[in-house]
């Protein structure tokens, strides 16, 4: 069983880091003010505002910001400003034993996916495919905040992950499987293949989502995961949205799911509200879940935070 980090409470301190691409200072400041209005304290990583092109700062410096947050006993949550690209370059500079000894809530999606899964695999801590700093604003739907705080601030168990109204998940292959859930952004996970941080799906429930990729690129990515054994190894599959994904060669995202994944015969659910979509469910990476595609239900079976 994975280690659950201490729960978040009002008045706690959030450690802010920029782990991938840079974000404009005005956006950072506005979102920080929103968090302060919610009653949280903020501490900044040294390179939160850095801007060095594709990434905010060199990999070793971004990694050190993360490690400083894990070492800081006052920090309860580590929140990345955004995803973007380049997060995987920090992985060789992380001390996974220090992280394991100091579990904290760490949340994000997009390219943060590679960090979330690596921390689970190498430090055995539950991480959260959920909100980043950019999401803390008035325009964010209440559903997203409810999901985030239900996962990080309550001990509710079991907890059914429900889509927002009028957006039902759909089960394409019936079945009932239980195991740890892993996954996230498709592009980011494919980029880990052949590295020491390659996603392990053995005995796991795999969920995927994507954004701004044409269906011919999705075809490439799904095929690469298939040829790498990731679908063979997993217990079941959850496909989230593919937001702003263009149709190529007359094939849609859903066509690819039907052509490539349905024939595998694994329990398969689609249309889960995750990641880059307007609505964002909070998926606890490493937590034990039950995927029941006969009753069309995804349930987290254990508390994802602790009282510690």
From TrEMBL:
Top-level lineage group: Bacteria
Any GO MF annotation of the entry: serine-type peptidase activity
Record keywords, A-Z: Carboxypeptidase, Hydrolase, Protease, Serine protease
Domain LD-carboxypeptidase N-terminal: 14-129
UniProt record, GO biological process: proteolysis
Active-site residues, record numbering mapped to chain: 110 (nucleophile), 209 (charge relay system), 276 (charge relay system)
Span of domain LD-carboxypeptidase C-terminal: 178-291
CDD domains: Peptidase_S66
Alphabetical list of InterPro entries matching this protein: Carboxypeptidase_A_C_sf, Class_I_gatase-like, LdcA_N, Peptidase_S66_N, Peptidase_S66C, S66_fam
Family in the record: Belongs to the peptidase S66 family.
Protein known as: LD-carboxypeptidase
Organism: Metabacillus litoralis
